[in-house]
Amino acid sequence: MLRKLLDLLSDAAVYGISSMLSRIVGLALLPLLTRYLTPADYGVVIMLGVVGMLFVPLGNLGMTNAIFRRFNLEKDPQARASVLGTGLVSVTCSSLVILAIGMLAAGPIARLIIGNADAVALVRVSLLAATATAIGMVPFVCLRAARRVKTAALVNVSKVVLSLIVTVSLLVVWELGVWAVVLGTLVSEVALALAQIVMTFPSFRAGFSWATWKRMASYGLPFVPHHLQAVSVNLFGLFVIREMLGLEAAGIYGVAIRFASPINFVVGAVQQSWVPYKFQIHAEDTNPRSFFQSTLTYYVAALSYLWVGVALWGPEVVRLLAGPEFHDAAFLIWAVALIPVMQGLYFMAGTGLELSDNTRPMPLVSFAGLVMVIAAAYLLVPRIDAFGAALATSLGWLTMGVVMYTISQRRFAISYDWPTIAWFALMAAVFVVAGSMVQSMTLWARLAVNTLLSLAYPLTGLIFLLRSRDERGRMLHLLSKLRLVPSNR
After folding, report:
1. How many Cα atoms sit within 13 Å of 478 on the Cβ side?
2. N or C: where does the chain have the smaller number of CB atoms within 10 Å of the terminal CB?
3. 2 & 86 share domain
4. Tens digit of pLDDT for each residue in 372-391?
């Protein structure tokens, strides 16, 4: 068990380090962005991101999910090559079709997401970048499925560095404003898509297999409405902010999201490593349920601590890095940081459903979340402004997690340690409330209280794990390995 957890942590650490570097670069760029862009400009940048988030699921047609499934089922290298080649042809063709439709509808899209038809050119460039992203996902999935984690991590870092170089050059030297960010994204996405195809080309088999595509489509297509609805869950709160409060409020909300980066990169790193790893564990391990059970407990412990840390220290970092006109984002951080926490729980709750061939319930999962976020956003945003959007989005992901868990348990029952998980959730909420109450104090008082809370949380969490019936033995064994307690073996 310990070895498997360490294997998962090893993969997640590599993805995490690359993601962390990407987030650090993004935060380092933030003072520059807040100097050269107004909150309204930043709002336009955030809303243009909607184009790529909605485009990729449509261009992908669920092929990346199907590649993970078929790649682990097929043992013959030629069969695997056929899966990859068919997936690449499928995604390329569907992405080009969606691109053509998007180019024709750029005007209505600009009015819908930005509220200004003059942004047509920006939308069209964003569509080109999204096309490169969708096509590049196939070779990237090839790297992940083969667990070439270091190469995949290098791709992530290279994309961010290239985007940074182009964006800074266009922003500082040519002072292109929003265009600098959009063009920087386009250049990095196209360059890295081409580089990934070259790196993974030997793994692909040229041509298109109709029989292979049908098997992949039967598994992957139900993910399309699911991913679209899941993306809408994430974006609807932002859309309501833009509609009700304006682009400036959307920009400040987007800055707050930037400072939830530590949780985002951990969730992303674990998700990137977890998807291929859980298929491998399920295929090879004699008792995968026990591993899945412990993984969720430790994952909740880590996520809750990250939420507390971001809620305590994020506001201080905002005041340090962002321009004064963006400082209102500091008060939103605890709320927007809850969103990736709920996303992480949702990803783990799905363990079991994706292990079967029947993925038809997936649209139902995301539909439940979408209904929740729409109802909650229209109820909360008029009353508590941007806080309502963040809480509505969190409720949407929580709803999806509950529905996903219910369906997954019918396919592959796992007895999770819910009492310990509930204690972690309650403890994290108490610490976050305590941190929020000190925001009106002086700087040194805030730093002192935040430090005390940051040190107290992991100690309290360790006590919870040692009191857990399911995890006590594993924790004592791990501590004995670290020579912190005598081994009783």
Report:
1. 14
2. C
3. no
4. 999 999 999 999 999 999 99
Picking from 221, 241, 272, the residue at the C-terminal end of a domain is 221
- The answer to whether the Cα torsion of 299, 301, 304, 309 is positive or negative is negative
32 falls within a domain:
no
Tens of pLDDT, residue by residue over 420-448, are 888 889 999 999 999 888 887 888 889 99
Non-local (6+) Cβ contacts of 376 within 8 A are: 388, 391, 392, 395, 396
List, as one string, the DSSP characters of 40-90.
HHHHHHHHHHHHHHHHHHHHHTTHHHHHHHHHHH--SHHHHHHHHHHHHHH
Do 295 and 187 share a structural domain? no
Name the residue range of residue 442's domain. Answer: 1-25+223-483
Residue type, 378: Y
Which residue in the block uniquely carries the two structure tokens 């590049």? 136
Write down the pLDDT at residue 146: 66
DSSP, res 170: I
- What residue ranges in 210-366 does DSSP mark as E strands? none
The pLDDT confidence band at residue 209, using thresholds 50, 70 and 90, is: confident
Is pLDDT of 359 > 80? Answer: no
Q: Are residues 295 and 168 in the same domain?
A: no
Sign of the CA dihedral 460, 463, 465, 469? negative
Name the domain boundary from 191, 221, 251.
221
**Do 315 and 349 share a domain, yes or no?**
yes
Q: Residue 159 is encoded by which pair of tokens?
A: 């994309």
Residues 314 and 432: beta-carbon distance below 8 Å? no
Could you give the CA distance from residue 281 to residue 291 in angstroms, rounded to a whole number?
9
Mean pLDDT of the chain: 82
pLDDT, tens digit, for every residue of 48-74?
A: 988 988 999 999 888 888 887 777 677
Closest CA relative to residue 341, chosen from 378, 410, 393: 393
Residues 182, 188, 189, 190, CA torsion sign: positive
Q: Rounded to an integer, what distance in angstroms lies between the CA atom of residue 226 and that of residue 306?
A: 28
| CB proximity list for 149: less than 8 A, separation 6 or greater | 11, 14, 15, 143, 273
Asked if pLDDT for residue 276 goes beyond 90, the answer is no
> How many structural domains does the chain have?
2
Number of H helices, E strands in the chain: 19, 0
Q: Are residues 197 and 143 in the same domain?
A: yes
Nearest-angstrom CA–CA distance, 336 and 307: 10
CB burial readout 452-467, b (16+ within 10 A) else e: ebbeebeeebeebbee
Strand runs (DSSP E) across 175-334, as ranges? Answer: none
